[in-house]
Amino acid sequence: EAGAAQQAAKAPKAGAFGTQDVVVNTPTFIMNAVNKKTGDLSIYVPNFTGGFEPGENLGVDFSDFFSWIDVDNDKDGGADASYALYKDGTLDFLGLVGEEYVEKNVGRGWNIYTTVLSPGSLGGAKESDLIGVDKSGVLWSYLAYPNGSLTARTRVGGGWNAYTQIAGQGDLTGDGKADIVAKDKDGVLWLYKGTGDYKAPFAARAKVGGGWNVYDRLLSVGDLDSDGKSDLLARKTNGELLRYSGTGNAAAPYKAPVKIGHGYQIFNLY
What we know:
The chain is mostly beta strands. It has one helix at residues 2-9, and strands at 31-35, 40-44, 56-61, 65-71, 81-86, 91-97, 100-107, 113-120, 129-134, 139-142, 154-157, 163-167, 180-184, 189-192, 206-209, 215-222, 231-236, 241-244, 258-261, 267-269.
């Protein structure tokens, strides 16, 4: 499926008009939507007012992919590269390294993880790093090099199989560090503030609130409403998509939800 990865990597990227003159801690990415029945990839480009433009079916078969992880390695606010994670555990890097477009394999055996994402930079460098939760519930981090390769993994901690969803892209709390949120099996959402220390990248969890089991998918594509803060997307089982705008305040990190779409139950979203 190398052709599918190439086509998706070269699809329009939100924030492609970002500037190198300003360091952006919370980028804005497209939302990838893979049809559960056909495997077709559609992309939803942010409209920068809190929602998305109408979806565009790229006519690409994405049925072999477990996830597609966009990253902003030059911190200009838009995706310049991606990690393509296949269901067989293969991890490829595709994107710009400087001004050169690069495609290469950076790992195998990643199907040991039930969740893989990039919340941004964990250790203070420009490059966006990866985290993964293995089947035993241990969270691991991988730091990224400028060329897209990854360091050996570092154990962050156990017990993460208590969570059914983990999401985050960029800075939610206003301190310039990448944060994540995690929903437990009882529907409680927890905030893990970034520390900037890759050996212990997240502070002790803080409770955001309960009732989140009404959602079957949580994800973040960064800043959707152009205020510089990370936002959260939440999908209900009936396909409604809601945006929780970030506040920059760790004590109350989200505003009230706003419905921004419907019909998303037919997709795997990432």
